[in-house]
Amino acid sequence: MSLLKIDDMTKTFGGLTAVKNLNMEINNHSISAVIGPNGAGKTTVFNLITGVYKLDSGDIIFNGESIVNLSPDEIVKKGITRTFQNIRLFKDMTVLENVMTGFHCRTECEILDLLFKKNKTKKEEAEILEKSLKLLEYIGIYEYRNEKSKNLPYGHQRILEIARALAAQPKLLLLDEPAAGMNSSEKDDLIKIIRKIQNDYDLSILLVEHDMGLVMNIAESIVVLNYGAKIASGTPIEVQTNDAVIEAYLGKGEDSNA
Amino acid sequence: MKNKNTINYRHLLTISVCILLPIVVQNKYYLHLFNMIGIYSLLAIGFNILAGYTGQISLGQAAFYGIGSYAAAILHVKFNLSIWIVLPIAVIITCIFGVIIAIPALKVKGKYLVLLTIAFGEITRLILLNWVGLTKGPAGILGIKAPTVFGFEIDSPMRFFYLISGFVILGIIIEKKIVNSRIGRAFIAIREDEDAAELIGINLKSYKIKSFMISAAYSAAAGVLYAFMVGYISPDSFRYDESVSILSMSIVGGFGTIYGPIVGSIALNVLPEIFRPLSEFRMVFYGVILIVTTMIYPGGLLKGFEAMLNKFQLKRKLKTPKNKDNILKSNKLY
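Structure tokens for the assembled complex are given below, as produced in the milestone run.
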């Protein structure tokens, strides 16, 4: 059984069909990517999976159950988290606090616990703190833990967003253009981190990415979108040599006789 | 290991000041002023949690203040119940109203939320004014008797000072607990980026409602204390300009900080008194100070003095080990 199955999914905004009859499957423990020219509908797919948009038709099945009628926070609890194209950290919080917030949906102390069950609260907070520190150390930004997240260098902010998403213990991690704005050494670090996460955690990763080098490097399978429709899918090699894909990115050449 | 909850010199200092102040300052007028500072502190904390931490700007806090006050006064006068019985009931009733306003508030943001809360404040005031059968209308409710604490009758400004200080200290302790907890983080996440908060697993509806309820509870407590202190309440005490005062105190003191509401309450209650010699110009100077302060310190005084506060550890900060090898090896929970 696949981890995530997108079944004939369609989403239109007024007259514009953003995603058209998309069929896709993601397996356990895999790294997949969705690529395509700008406006192809990639982030829309993420927004549909995470419950930000409602599907017009079709279904999304995660771990055997349909998630299309769940709210975004319920979907997180089911095991899907994401990072954002434009970084959306909690700016006024420190690095550590951002990650601790990631653990929110895996913990449970409420106001009454706070007031009347001191030991339970203290224990849970200590656990959250310890897990957050370990996660920061694991991902490599422990030294910045008490900095305000808005003061972090750009590349580290992206890493922090990944750490925060990991804190929620996802089975499927969606990374929306994680390499955007990074220089090549930051991208190398990113590749190492993604591989490390995929190795050490029991999860699958789905990337949206424009950096072809990065995608071809880490993705095991790729889906190519253009104008909302899937035009190709397969391994990196298959996709790289696919005519439709080349045409989508580069356009028809003058002397093309395809 | 030094635990921030153990009693330290700051706590001792605060407690000493609270005990000694009404002995040193015998002047009843000033003591009454301090008491109002205490009541406004509670109101400002309530507003601060809702607006400063959760980002839901409400200009209807006077409604909660009034509902708490009237609920307590009506129950006390009609059934001769003591403050210790009417207080929790008034708080619960006001919390219910907190939920009532929270539900439509979930659907609006920013300026529309402000408008909604202004409307809520006004509607509440008009109901208090016109439902004469319940509230005695513009005549107000008289004859709220002095409460009794541990056998002591609280019938002087000095005794009220002790009672109110106790509530303010409790209010701060609870505020601190909330802000430094998972709930506090959820509130701040909602303020910082609501959509990202939802996408990290925070249920917006649930937490916004909780925030309104906590805000209502603080305001209700303030209202109850006010009713028993002054002995008489009328709809006039719960007008829109009270909501504005509460907002101003919270912002000037330090928006989204634990002690900001206290600082703001002190500042904005003491200032008009300092300017009293200026008679008819005192509110002009008050206004000018207000404007200048928010221009220089847009986040309020405590945010402006953030660096200094870090030194005295008044800001929320988690103690974490410098040597990271220790965390990886040990099973100890910090």
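Chain A has a mean pLDDT of 92. The first strand of chain A starts at residue 4 and ends at 13. Further analysis is deferred to the final report.
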